[in-house]
Amino acid sequence: MRRFFINASISDNMIIDGADARHIALVLRLAAGDTVLISGQDGRSGKAEIIQVSTDAVQLRLLELIDANTEPPIATWLVQGLAKGEKMDFIVQKAVELGVSGIIPAITEHCVVRYDLAKQADKVARWQKIAREAAKQCGRSYIPKIFPVTRLADVFTYHELTSASKIMLYEGQASQGLKQALTEANRQAYLLFIGPEGGFSPTEVDLCQENSVRIVTMGPRIMRTETAAVAALTAVMYECGDLGG
């Protein structure tokens, strides 16, 4: 059964609009009487019957609420240094599949790509669309948020992230590994810092340490930024989440 997200809470009567409505009408060719799964902004999910279909809006009637929460028991945000080409698309897609709560595209000293404000907005909109499609594909109950492109120093101003255990993956000297940091932290929320192609600068490492970020290593091999992001999230979800069952 197909799953769709609505920008409202689950209720007796609901509407799917925009691109999803066109997809239902023109591609899936669903009709009145067909049933779909709906996930709302309130985190609840339900089975709904299609009442009426058009390319502008699909009207639904709630049949029953269902226990379909597929979210991990921990919250994990990814601060990802801007990567070039399609690497960011890949990182967003795979991070959502692994269970990330949100992604902050970060401007760092060694970023190869530089976007003006208009381009930043276009990229964030694209990455949010990728996150939405990935959430639908893998059966998430929630669409992770793609934050605006942010300078690294400004990440520490996000109040919703202050309670998270902060961890930076660094290819330079680090006093402990990721596994040890996760064991010692034993928290319900994590904020992972992943550098761009050129990694983090010593100045940025100092900045993070001043803001209570643990600097850790993932071993003796230097990973590409897209590999590091996926590997780090996988490790966190295995150690603290639900990836190991």
Structural key phrases:
5-stranded mixed β-sheet, Ribosomal Protein L25, Chain P, 8-stranded parallel β-sheet, 13 strands, Alpha/beta knot, single chain, 245 residues
Structure commentary:
The longest helix has 22 residues, at 117-138. This protein has helices spanning 18-28, 87-98, 117-138, 178-185, 202-210, 225-240; strands spanning 3-5, 13-17, 35-39, 45-53, 57-66, 75-81, 102-107, 145-146, 150-151, 165-169, 176-177, 189-194, 214-217. It is α/β, with parallel strands linked by helices. The protein has six helices and 13 strands. The radius of gyration is 20 Å and the shape is elongated. The strands form two sheets. Strands 6, 7, 8, 9, 10, 11, 12 and 13 form an eight-stranded parallel beta sheet that branches. It has a five-stranded mixed beta sheet with strand order 1-3-4-5-2. 32% of the residues lie in helices and 27% in strands.
Number of DSSP strand runs = 13
The helix/strand class is alpha/beta
Strand content: 25-35%
Low confidence ranges: none
Mean pLDDT: 92
Furnish the topology, listing elements before pairings.
Elements (H helix, E strand, L loop, with lengths): L2 E3 L7 E5 H11 L6 E5 L5 E9 L3 E10 L8 E7 L5 H12 L3 E6 L9 H22 L6 E2 L3 E2 L13 E5 L6 E2 H8 L3 E6 L7 H9 L3 E4 L7 H16 L5
Parallel strand pairs: 1-3, 6-7, 6-12, 7-8, 7-9, 10-12, 10-13, 11-13
Antiparallel strand pairs: 2-5, 3-4, 4-5
Write a brief structural summary.
With 245 residues, this protein is an alpha/beta fold.
